[in-house]
Request: fold
Amino acid sequence: MPAADVEVPVLIVGGGPVGLTARALLARWGVPTLLVEKHRELSPFPRSRLVNVRSMEIFRQLGIAAGIAAGAFAPEYGRVRFRDTLYDADFATAAMVGIHAPVPESPVIGVVTSQDRLEPALLAAAGGEVRFGTELVDLEEEADAVLAVLADDEHGAETRVRARYVLAADGANSTVRERLGIGTTGPGALGSFTTVVFDADLDRWCAHQPAGVYFTAYGTFTPLYPEGGWAWFGATPDAPERADWAGLVSRALGPGAGVRADVVRVQHWPMTATVAETFVRGRILLAGDAAHAVPPIGGLGMNAGVADAHNLCWKLAGVLHGWAGPSLLGTYGTERQPVARETLRQGVGNTRLLIQVQRLRDEQLRGGVSAPVELPWSERYFAQLGLVLGATYRSEAVLNGHADPAPEPSSTEYVPTAEPGHRMPHHWLTPDRSTLDTLGAWFTLLTPAPARWQRQAVAPWPLHIETLPREPADRYRLSPHGGALLVRPDGHVAARWDEPPPDGSTLRHALSAVTAHSPAG
Reply:
């Protein structure tokens, strides 16, 4: 067996939002990690724009939601506007649900912010070693570990790392996924696009009609930071090396704007739409874009990756700490792959609809049609609560959850329910404490009669028992004499009992089944 220079429980490959979230979540469980990122610094490019309500719930658990919101745009920017050019009036507009204003289904509100603002907050959320400018160049799975070879970008020196598990969050062109030979399904490449970061004073006609995204017939605009800066993106033209980027952006700004863009940076990128054929290969697990590359229209991809990490990290911690069986990790793919497919379907639908709207309006403008005619714009772009809060898990990690397949979540409609497999609904327990705030690095038992459950032996599992007020208990048909909900650390209901426990081993049996672990004694 080759000697290793470093040994670590979890090697995280990729230092974007998903890898950084996983690092922070594992730190809460006391799991040491080594995170490696091939670039020499956090992303300086303002890529992902939207942190949805579910991601903010996760960041609330990490204690960083308030800081992220403080550096983000005001809620009124949680809107999308459709215009001929940025200078023109709206011909359609829609609010981003859960971003533009609070929703009763959550204790938090999502935000519009830039990835280069989000990543430093995630990096600061946990300690542990992070190596920038370090690339994974090889890996080999052994009986009880994974041996990875890392290369230093500056000096070319190699380091051998032995990790119990590898979490690959290294993007749509994942080196780990390629090394494992894991294929992908889905439409694939949707086109080549270019983002242009530029400076211009656009406040005089945008400040009174704020938006996180302005779609025009000639490309899409996004404000970058509350204090200034803009980005435009659109299809990459032929011969991009000779393109007049300032001219292209100015065309989309509009002839009446009287503004010429001062180009700061240009980045070309392919828009792809794929889902990996498997998320779990032995001791190696794919998350984020490595598992599912989702088009950015609608702000779904990064947030789906954050939810991947939330689903996975408590399972990894349980296996490493000894209160979960290794087979629990297989439920990660079982639960998250259907959500990834539905997320991809929605992202591809958003993209194709946007391209259709822009193409049709461009044709109308070329034909001299001043007012838009029968454009298929939709309020569904950012109406996503059904998808982000309504995802349902069916697996062995949900009591009786393998009996029937999980229904595909509706993209727009969310109906709170406390049935097993669903996210625990939000209710205020006090003016500033939600049912979601009872969750953490433990299982939570919510019951109106905690004394009926406190005598049950549950070692070695981490468990917190919380009193559930009468109103939500009645709403979810739980007996006031001892009905209960067992909620997993990721906030999904693992089991429920409408009536008091039939015997003193009820909870122990449930935890054993959910975690694939049967302790002796």
